[in-house]
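Dear colleagues,

I hope this message finds you well. In preparation for our joint manuscript, I am sending the Nucleoside triphosphate pyrophosphohydrolase (Primorskyibacter flagellatus) sequence together with its predicted structure, so that both groups work from identical material. I would be grateful if you could confirm receipt.
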Amino acid sequence: MTREIDPATAIADPMQRLLAIMRRLRDPETGCPWDIEQTFATIAPYTIEEAYEVADAIERGAMQDLRGELGDLLLQVVFHAQMAEEEGHFAFPDVAHEVAQKMIDRHPHIFGDESRDKSAEQQTQDWEAVKAAERAARGANGVLDDVAVGLPALLRAMKLQKRAARVGFDWPSTDQVLAKLQEEAAELTEARNDLGPDEVEEEMGDLMFVMANLSRHFGVDPEAALRRANAKFTRRFAAIESALAAKGRTPEQSTLEEMDTLWNEAKRAEKS
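The corresponding structure tokens are as follows:
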């Protein structure tokens, strides 16, 4: 017996096809058991993961991968919107309408009567002023209100620091941030030597928070910098494994001293 073609898969418009497929997957009687069981909370980690996979594809310059990853991220939006519609909160068209209106409201120099003759810095200031007004309208009056708690910790640290800096709570120069970095490193050493695990964790958090602040002052995206460092570590460790494999051995069969030597060789080869 052959299964009939589901009408959802035959829709010509790509966006409408995707929405229909998601409705079909979530159908309580005939949908996919896994998709039916999901909630906003269970899907949220996948949403975050897909966003990072988009960033990874961009970092690698892999446009074919980027096309697929953007589709995966779009699916997350569709999934959340479908669940919201089922619960009577909103539907996908509401999501699209709201973000479209937001872009119109935040670009009065394009869609309104303001002049386009602005620097990128002035446009950024105007954007932040509009966002501040939107936050106030929602009742978020504190400077740090509505910086999402669920953000990755490093990204949230950057956002918190940017918000505080807007009202003048910031170090004026990188020299002071570097001095604070040394202070926090010393406190971490003290916690390691004289205190317990909780204190070590606290001081490690303080040190990382200052590192995020230093990145901001240098105009460096700490996530991008760390991704770059991760890629570098992966390349050089792969070089260690390759060099050892040529000798018929694995890292487990090597010593730290030998692997360190091979690491330095890989480092020199990259810089030559």
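For the figure legend, we might mention the following. The mean pLDDT is 90. Residues 222-246 form the longest helix (25 residues).

With kind regards,
E.M.
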